[in-house]
Amino acid sequence: MTSQDIDKNSFAPIYYQLQELLVGKIESGELKPGDKIPSENELADKYNISRNTAQKAIRALVNWGLAQRIQGKGTYVCNKTVTLSITASLSLTSEIIGLNKVPHSHILQAKVIEASLDIATKLGIEKDTKVYSIQRIRSVDDLPLMIQTSYIPVFYLPDLLKKNLEDKSLFGVIMHEYGIKIDKASEMMRAVSVTKFEGEILQIPEFSPAFLLQRQTYLDDGRVLEYAKTIVRGDKSKFHVDLNKEELNI
User: Fold this and answer.
1) What counts of helices (H) and strands (E) characterise the chain?
2) Which helix (H) or strand (E) holds 218?
3) CA–CA distance, 94 with 101 (Å, rounded to integer)
């Protein structure tokens, strides 16, 4: 049996095998962005399965953002998702440029607020300390990909809001214009679903799957410079992590 076959004696459901087969064709480039995916009837005939089973597999590709249905025409492969590294640099702009895509940032709001207990705890400061709250939409090739909200104590960066932060790396401004050296960052990720507000901004339905990234960025003396919350749409992004042999426990 080859990778192109459906094993009807497998413990894995037939629709699951078919969707994995189609995902493999997309990931390998055999099916490229813009290519038409065979119809349910074509897949049913090719693999000797029911049309409903084929339809279920294609529906999964659409739900994952790998394919899109065009009324009256069929189902087509979407543009590739953006792969982001958990261990990448703090500059999303640099990372996206490295993927030959065009990054864009739009500031939803930037203001000074008094830190809540939660924000203050994460920043290691006193409650009600003045902090910048900077919320941006991060887009790739005009596709809204994430909503990022950064909290930074005002005393680190006087007059930050007077700087041009549109379409610039926030950390590029911090390092180059303030001369602040960043030592490290820690980030936690978990799966969430978007709210109605988040869905409207990201142009996806309410309750769509997404990633929540929570990051703390540290100075070399151990103090926290920034706490950031980022909602990343799940249908157009994926993450990778590089592990060395010590981390793999080999």
Assistant:
1) 8, 11
2) strand 209-219
3) 10
Q: What is the pLDDT of residue 236?
A: 77
206, 205, 198: which is closest to 230 by C-alpha?
Answer: 198
Q: Which two tokens stand for residue 71?
A: 């009324």
- Determine which helix (DSSP H) or strand (DSSP E) holds 88, and give its type and residue range: none
| 199-211 pLDDT, tens digit each | 999 998 888 888 8
d(CA 174, CA 170): 6
Q: Which domains, from first to last, does the chain contain? A: 14-77 (1.10.10.10), 82-245 (3.40.1410.10)
Starting at the edge strand that comes first in sequence, how are the strands of the sheet with 67-70 ordered? Answer: 36-37, 74-77, 67-70
User: How far is residue 218's CA from residue 216's CA, in Å, rounded to a whole number?
Assistant: 7
Q: How confident is the model at residue 96 (pLDDT cuts 50, 70, 90)?
A: very low
80-84, 125-129, 240-244, range with greatest mean pLDDT: 125-129
